[in-house]
Amino acid sequence: MTDILDKPATSPISTSRHGDVLIVTSNNPPVNALGAAVRQGLVAAIEEAEGDEAIKAVVIRCEGQTFFAGADITEFGKPPVMPWLPTVVDAIENCSKPVVAAIHGTALGGGLEVALGCHYRIAVKDAKLGVPEVKLGLLPGAGGTQRLPRVAGVQKALEMCTSGAMVSAKDAYDAGLVDRIVEGELVQHAVALAEEVRDIRPLPKSSERDDKLQAARDNPAIFDEFRKANAKKFRGFEAPEANIKAVEAAVAKPYAEGVIDERNLFMGLMAGTQSKAQQYFFFAERKAAKIENIPEDTQPRVVKRVGVIGAGTMGGGISMNFLSAGIPVTIVEMAQDALDRGTGIMRKNYEATAAKGRMTAEQVEQAMGLLNPTLDFDKLAECDLIIEAVFEQMDIKKEVFGRLDKIAKQGAILASNTSYLNVDEIAASTSRPQDVVGLHFFSPANVMKLLEIVRGAKTAPDVLVTAMQLSKRIKKVAVVAGVCHGFIGNRMLMPRQVEATKLLLEGATPEQVDRVHVEFGMPMGPFQMADLAGVDIGWHRDPNRIENIRDALAAEGRWGQKKQAGFYDYDDKRRPSPSPRVQEIIEDFRSKAGITARQIDDEEIVERTLYTMVNEGAKILEEGMAQRASDIDVVWVYGYGWPVYRGGPMCWADTEGLGKIVEGLKRQEERMGSDFSFSKLLLEKADKGEKFTR
Ligand code: T1G
Question: Residue ranges of the 3-hydroxyacyl-CoA dehydrogenase C-terminal domain (predicted)?
């Protein structure tokens, strides 16, 4: 079909003819975002089709990696340029000749809305479709909330609009979103379909469909049932409810009125702080992949086989990331029973995923088939990347790296999964510090998306580039961190935990502190998190050495959920309740310290735990331990569940106002005593009225 495509025009939209079919092509890399020039070009192309008798049908397609991937997010917040996207979609739908959407890649957001404006939709097998606007704190604002339920049904529309998840071409076909799935030359098939339907009238307009709405009219409870079923997931977010309301309007009102509701709901979201934070975060997570101060053309090293030392919880979880990406793993343990236990848990985890229908039995076998468990440490010599996940103790790490230095092949990357320790010190125990890097996975390593790539003083640029590229392959979001105690995430966790514990001594309860954090939008508070992770993590294990509340709990075996007792008591379904025993322990420490309990208000808890985190984040920035403020936000959203509708600690601080943050910290400075010192950068920025993230 190469003869049909003319030379590219200046506009990203070009048109060409194949017989009596007008082919409209968008060439707007990297994702054919529907920027102003694309929108103008599409309207012009429809006018061209209308104005030429010889044209009987139209195909709309895209060059490059994907069909339109949505509105151009970089245009948001700027003065609007006509035509609006809804106008473009209406122009397509009101064309007097049939318009076929030829979909490949990811037809997302406004891209799917353009396809819904077309009269027919054809897709290649591996295409994906979705309306991810909710992830930007928005809703499909170009008729999507009105057309989608009419074409795919209300339940499907609710699920797609509120999750933002992509659906496969097959799933889309089954839902009626796509008329045909094809293999091979998409343009050819699209032109053939256009020829087939050229004389069919009336044209099938999505906005005029009504059949699939009736089911919801007969069962109006569908909306509240959907709200209830998703209440936990949507907690704190504004956009999901707005999406539901827009779909409700599609059912209750004629199309022309429903789109007005959609527009009003869209503008309401766009004006709010949540969508600004979530749009900021969309770019923040992409910026995190950019590594500063390395040569532009640094090439990654080849990684064909990965070695993992330690088949415990972390080693097993880390291994699964690579196995799932089709990368062979040699996993080493010191004892057969530990090795068997570790590989057994990996298989069990895969089987649990398969039981949920998220992978097939053969994929489980495929992944496990790439695993080479061994007691022979020297087998690591065949690996291109070796990750140690041994006990979090410096002398043990140094001993392991010393051994690796002797057997690992030249050019192999030696990585530590340490969550706190000094990577430079570990690197110094080898003759090849340039090959040493930290790869800090978060537990459970096969689930949590965050990966901190800890850049040692001597870590070579290509080691960093390799780590960043690999992180994408294993579906992680990686952030480069400098060498300091706790890197970025855990370093900010420390002042939060210190102040949270002091608040208990001063009169707060674990429930109060945790409630404030959960109401803020965190998945859990500091004490719920301690009970989940384990109160005994990092404990010195001497039951006679009781220096703080945590020591006291650990000494009594109150190690958290796994022992049905920690900062809370737990029933056999792990439901928490306030613990009288913990209250006694707190009161005992309080009286020993001569502290009289006082009423502590929620605002103080925010200032002493969340504001101090912002202050620590500012120190991380001023010390160069993070490349940019937005990286800190990526760490906290992906590593600890910071509510993305607040953008992350640094974005939230900007929204609060740095002056307010400084004032709040000044109010608490005396109570925090020597545990606290102001970040100079924070004071400076607050003084100048500057922001961290924009
Ligand atoms: N607008 C502008 N730039 C975009 C973009 C978009 N929609 N999508 C991606 N980019 C940039 C991205 O910043 C990066 O830039 C490069 O493209 C490659 O992206 C009215 C209001 C399509 C699945 O939310 O999900 O339509 O870093 O690294 O991994 O109803 O990009 O190279 O400079 O992600 O191959 C709805 C968002 C918009 C889709 C490709 N659409 N994009 O993933 O590449 S709102 C979205 C994605 C809307 C209407 C509403 C992914 C992708 P740089 P990438 P990828």
Answer: 486-570, 605-689
Contact 265, 242 (CB under 8 A): yes
pLDDT tens digits, 17-76 = 999 999 999 999 999 999 999 999 999 999 999 999 999 999 999 999 999 999 999 999
ipTM over 0.95: yes
Q: In angstroms, what CA-CA distances link 165 with 106, 222, 449?
A: 11, 20, 17
Answer whether 25's CB lies under 8 Å from 67's CB.
no
pTM: 0.94
Is there a single domain that holds both residue 47 and residue 183? yes
| Closest residue by CA, ligand 1 atom 23 | 106
DSSP 16-54: EEETTEEEEEE--TTTT-B-HHHHHHHHHHHHHHHT-TT
Question: Which parts of 228-378 are beta strand (E)?
Answer: 306-309, 329-332, 371-374
Say which residues have a Cβ less than 8 Å from residue 485's Cβ, sequence separation at least 6.
420, 422, 491, 494
- The domain boundary, picked from 597, 618, 640, lies at 597
Burial class from Cβ neighbours inside 10 Å (0-12, 13-18, 19+) for residue 356 reads exposed
Task: For 183-224, write each residue's pLDDT tens digit.
Answer: 989 999 999 999 999 999 999 999 999 999 999 999 999 999
The burial of 74, by beta-carbon neighbours within 10 Å (0-12 exposed, 13-18 middle, 19 or more buried), is given as exposed
Scanning 580-657, the segments in alpha helix (DSSP H) are 580-592, 602-605, 612-622, 629-640, 649-656
CA of 111 to the centre of ligand 1 (A): 11
Q: Who's near 110: CB < 8 A, 6+ residues apart?
A: 34, 68, 70, 71, 85, 140, 142, 144
CA of 238 to the centre of ligand 1 (A): 22
Which of 565, 597, 629 finishes a domain? 597
Residue type, 608: R
- Is the minimum distance from the CB of 110 to ligand 1 under 6 angstroms? yes
**69 CB less than 6 Å from ligand 1?**
yes
Q: Which residue has the tokens 């998703």?
A: 230
CATH number of 329's domain = 3.40.50.720
Are residues 172 and 68 located together in one domain of the fold? yes
Q: Domain check: are 405 and 528 in the same one? A: no
* Same domain flag for 434 and 313: yes
SS3 193: helix
* H or E element at residue 417: none
Return the CATH number at 561: 1.10.1040.50
